[in-house]
Design goal:
Alpha-Beta Plaits; about 40% helix; single chain; alpha+beta; eight-stranded antiparallel barrel
Length: about 260
């Protein structure tokens, strides 16, 4: 019991130390989700990672109350090959609870035997990058898209300091998200990164029916008079110093 309490406190303290108390200058709301985003840098052992995710990890997460776990691959395959996993939690406390529960989940251990049995000479992946994100006020829960929307675009916006990212989050919350919705740029999730690589930054995902529909919607966004007005406001100057973009498609067993 003492070990579990220590681990829970350590997880929450680590997240807080990484910037939760500073996110957008506000105390996080319990109604805002927390996202764990994993990027597996693969050694091409895809059947093993697919079996682990679909037969072991995702069922375990579902047993512990986590729903709508997304698994994606890049439309244009990169080298090394990458697998992206999106895990939504209802709060930081829920993230801590589930992380602790998975450590003692006997069914997960049994389902992971083949995954865990591979020797060090045949690693499944090189490394796994893990980030934690706190959902924006303007979209506090992930939106599961329709089944005909299968082209996902993920963007990471780096800022030159924490204030730049806070101002960009405010820009989304107070105008940009609304314009997105009006021009059919469909949000899936928006989160400020509170732990992981590349801080300070934010990450968001949108979804489309096709690349043609995506290009049309994004052009409508850039041409929208409200966006042009918003982007010229001095308070939002110099909020983004670098943009990373990747187009993703869900694997057959993805729940998103």
């Amino acid at each position: 019991m003492e070990r579990r309490n220590f681990l829970k406190g350590s997880l929450l303290a680590a997240a807080a130390a990484s910037g939760v108390s500073q996110v957008s200058g506000q105390t996080p709301s319990k109604k805002k989700e927390v996202y764990e985003f994993r990027v597996y840098h693969m050694n091409r052992n895809l059947p093993t990672i697919d079996a682990y995710l679909s037969e072991a990890l995702i069922p375990a997460l579902n047993r512990h109350g986590v729903r709508n776990v997304g698994v994606f691959r890049e439309v244009s395959q990169s080298e090394p090959f990458k697998v992206y996993v999106l895990i939504p939690y209802s709060s930081l406390e829920d993230y801590s609870r589930v992380t602790i529960a998975l450590r003692s989940d006997a069914e997960l251990d049994r389902a992971s035997q083949s995954y865990n049995a591979l020797p060090a000479s045949r690693p499944i992946f090189e490394r796994v990058d893990v980030s934690l994100l706190l959902a924006f006020d303007g979209i506090p829960q992930m939106v599961v898209p329709r089944k005909d929307q299968r082209l996902f675009e993920m963007r990471i916006y780096e800022g030159h300091n924490e204030d730049a990212v806070r101002r960009k989050v405010k820009m989304f919350n107070e105008g940009e998200l609304d314009i997105f919705r009006r021009v059919n740029v469909t949000p899936v999730f928006f989160g400020e990164n509170i732990a992981g690589r590349g801080l300070p930054c934010l990450t968001y995902m949108t979804v489309y029916e096709s690349m043609e529909q995506r290009d049309k919607a994004f052009k409508a966004f850039l041409d929208h008079p409200d966006w042009k007005k918003l982007s010229q406001m001095p308070e939002y100057a110099d909020t983004v110093s670098k943009v990373h973009r990747v187009f993703l498609q869900p694997v057959p067993y993805s729940q998103v």
